[in-house]
Design a protein that fits this description.
By secondary structure, the protein is an alpha+beta fold. It has one domain (34-182). It has five helices and six strands; from the N terminus they run αβαβββαβαβα. The strands form two sheets. The protein has a four-stranded mixed β-sheet with strand order 4-3-6-5, with helices on one face. A two-stranded antiparallel ribbon has the order 1-2. The longest helix is centred in the middle third of the chain and has 12 residues, at 108-119. The chain is extended and about 95 Å long.
Length: 183
């Protein structure tokens, strides 16, 4: 009975300490692409932004998929310059949605996707102004030029402007207007 055990218990014998564990990094390197800033950084450095002219008067209906926009190249263009990872989009009703794209910067499609996600379950008769008229960066508004506190508050968001008519579209908008006049 005094004999030592002959069977080796691998959990106890032969290992003085547990094997070193490799650190698993969950941070993706592609999520922090170079040249893309945050709206907070732009605000801190007082870097003014420009909204893409192509995003104005698309004729897009906010409760339809962005894939219904006829000009597919338009969807790939950046919403604003300089490029940002995320931007808040504010409706006149006070509702705020966020468009995000960490890899390439927020595109027009990203903004339309965020707006669509908010409005996809709404029926046409629920929407007083169902068409996207465009986006406005409020600090550029003449009324805010002389109000630094309000200008700083509005720096990190775009305002969404809607319309009751489709507006000017590169193609397809005139068809809708013809149908409207025919009724």
């Amino acid at each position: 009975m005094a004999e030592p055990l002959t069977r080796v218990d691998s959990a106890v014998q032969g290992l003085s300490e547990s094997p070193p564990k490799e650190k698993i990094s969950h941070r993706r390197t592609s999520s922090s692409a170079a040249g893309i800033q945050s709206m907070k950084e732009l605000n801190e450095n007082q870097i003014e932004i420009d909204v893409a002219v192509e995003s104005q008067a698309t004729g897009w209906k906010i409760n339809t998929s962005p894939s219904t926009v006829e000009d597919k190249e338009l969807l790939k263009k950046p919403l604003i310059t300089p490029l940002v990872r995320a931007i808040d989009l504010r409706f006149d009703t006070g509702v705020v949605v966020t468009a995000r794209n960490n890899k390439h910067g927020v595109t027009i499609k990203d903004a339309l996707d965020a707006i669509y996600k908010q409005n996809k379950k709404r029926a046409d008769d629920e929407l007083v102004e169902p068409y996207l008229k465009g986006f406005e960066w409020a600090p550029n508004h003449p009324q805010l030029k002389d109000n630094p506190a309000k200008r700083k508050e509005e720096w990190e968001r775009l305002h969404i402007h809607l319309s009751s008519t489709p507006g000017v579209s590169s193609s397809g908008g005139s068809k809708k207007k013809k149908n409207k006049h025919a009724e």
